[in-house]
Task: structure prediction
Amino acid sequence: MPRLATASAVATGAASAPFWAGCDAGELRFQRCRACGRADLPPAEHCRECLSGDQAWEASAGLGTVYSWTVVHRPVTPDFAAPYAPVIVELDEGPLLVTNLVGCPPARLRVGLRVAVLFHRAGAGPALPYVHPVTHAIPDGSTREA
Ligand SMILES: [Zn+2]
Result:
């Protein structure tokens, strides 16, 4: 599991303020364009599809699937303990979320792995979204990945 980034590593601004406020409230938010309907992350002032500035914020259910990943063995800052896995998650609502996998060895990663978002605060900065595998309880007391 990576050490969690320090507050100084997070850049916030007016366009992303609702996203970070959502993270602090335990809610993953994304933007949906009112003109064309595109759901998107990261936050932007204009739609990446049609350039409209008419964007609404929606709450994600916090579930998705692994779209791609990499495993980092030599971190660029001491804030992370290698190995760790940055992942691109396709949220069920459509946007792609770039984050880190926690609670799972990188060797278990696969495309399509179901994951859920969790939040963790490091220092005085905003809470950060991470993902972990979704598991289901089996009657014998064990679990399996979704
Ligand atoms: Zn649009």
Notes: The chain has a mean pLDDT of 87.
